[in-house]
Amino acid sequence: MRIALIHALRHSPPPIEAAFAEAWPGARLMNLLDDSLSADLARDGALTPAMTERFLTLGRYARGTGADGVLFSCSAFGPCIEAVAADLAPIPVLKPNEAAIEEAVAIGRRIGLLATFPGTLSSMPPEFPPGVQVVPCLAEGALAALDAGDTAAHDRLAAEAARQLSGCDVILLGQFSLARAAQAVAAATGRPVVTTPGSAVRRLRSLLGA
């Protein structure tokens, strides 16, 4: 099956490709990247109708290539992705966080949400079900370190920030690019860690009956 992966950060393709290699190696992947989306959201401070139209354009392009399913890796754009899902139905269109949120909620009700992109901490909490306490935490400087190619600093900063979440039942890493720091976060906190790429791949494969 052909799966379209749509990204707003250039660091997102490697972790999701690694997750497919492990959980669904037979899928044929295509990557669409517009890293100006995250920059424009950071500049504007809010999602706009124009942003939604850009997402619809990306989704329709993916459908036109023959994609059987679409997975977005950009966690700060939930409403835009919902618009794409409605537009492309019945093709499965997944937010990056759906499956990971379900896995985290199954572990505990106090969930630490670690992110490197500030927009994620405002857009993602409403996606959790009622009765769940979400504790947001920004790993300051981690994304800039990753942009500069300093992966060790990224992982270290993520782990240091995550120590604030050691009182949570589980820690959910809010960016696909954070998956690389999962072991460091687990070691720093002693808590279970849920990453989005593996959860998303398993869910999409199940939805498509592959």
Overview of this structure, please?
With 210 residues, this protein is α/β, with parallel strands linked by helices. It has a 4-stranded parallel beta sheet, sandwiched between helices.
Share in helix: 40-55%
Order of helices and strands: EHEHHEHEHEHEHHEHEH
Q: What oligomeric arrangement do these chains adopt?
A: single chain
Strand content: 15-25%
Uncertain ranges: none
- Arithmetic mean of pLDDT: 94
For the secondary structure, the number of strands is 8
Main sheet record: 4 strands, parallel
Question: Which secondary-structure class do the elements indicate?
Answer: alpha/beta
Number of alpha- plus pi-helical segments: 10
**What characteristic shape results from the CA principal axes?**
globular
Query: Which strand order do you get reading across the main beta sheet?
Result: 2-1-3-4
First and last CA, distance: 8 Å
**Computed CA radius of gyration, to the nearest angstrom:** 16 Å
How are the SSEs placed, and which strands pair?
Elements: E1 2-7, H1 13-23, E2 28-33, H2 36-44, H3 49-64, E3 69-72, H4 78-88, E4 93-94, H5 98-107, E5 110-115, H6 118-123, E6 133-138, H7 142-147, H8 151-162, E7 170-173, H9 182-189, E8 193-195, H10 196-207
Parallel strand pairs: 1-2, 1-3, 3-4, 5-6, 5-7, 7-8
What labels would you give this structure?
10 helices; globular; 8 strands; alpha/beta; 210 residues
How would you briefly describe this protein structure?
With 210 residues, the chain is of the alpha/beta class. Helices cover 48% and strands 18% of the residues. α1 (13-23) packs across α10, α3 crosses α4 (78-88) and α8 (151-162) packs parallel to α9.
